[in-house]
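From the thread on structure requests for the teaching lab: each student submitted one protein with a one-line request. Submission from student K.M.:

"Model Large-conductance mechanosensitive channel from Streptomyces chumphonensis, tokens only."
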Amino acid sequence: MSEKQSVLAGFKEFLMRGNVVELAVAVVIGAAFTKIVNAVVEGVINPVVGAIGPKDLDAYQSCLKAPCSVDPETGEAIGISIQWGSVLSASITFVMTAAVVYFVMIMPMNRYKQRVAARTPVVETPPTKTELDVLTEIRDALVAQRTSSEESGGATVGAPRDGGQSPKS
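Reply posted by the TA:
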């Protein structure tokens, strides 16, 4: 029984995460929005295009192998035709959907995020030293030590003071 409760508790936790709830809302809104876009394409765009040619975009086609017709007795298509009108209609629907989603949802959200980011103070972290910085400091210290020892008597650090000869015993 406790395993069943833990599974249900885990499932409830999964559902209550912000991303899952937001995704569910987006799917519902997207489904409703798709119906609106389809109505605009079928009720406004298709009639405007229909003023130039056939009333229905789905009727636009090209014939690869003539004759392109439907046999009235069997209902089979004769010839090879490309139904590019339905592709055009779907493309118009996609572009309109993408444009509305971008201009109505994405742009305002990006502007909102920029305003929030501009309001929050930026905390500057002190720069951390890298190996290269430490090695540069060591090099500079050694160069400074060498120059100061050369100016004070010409002896170098670590060199024997008796001219390089070892004492005899």
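TA comment: The domain at 7-119 is CATH 1.10.1200.120 (Non-ribosomal Peptide Synthetase Peptidyl Carrier Protein; Chain A). The helical segments are 2-16, 18-50, 84-119, 131-152.
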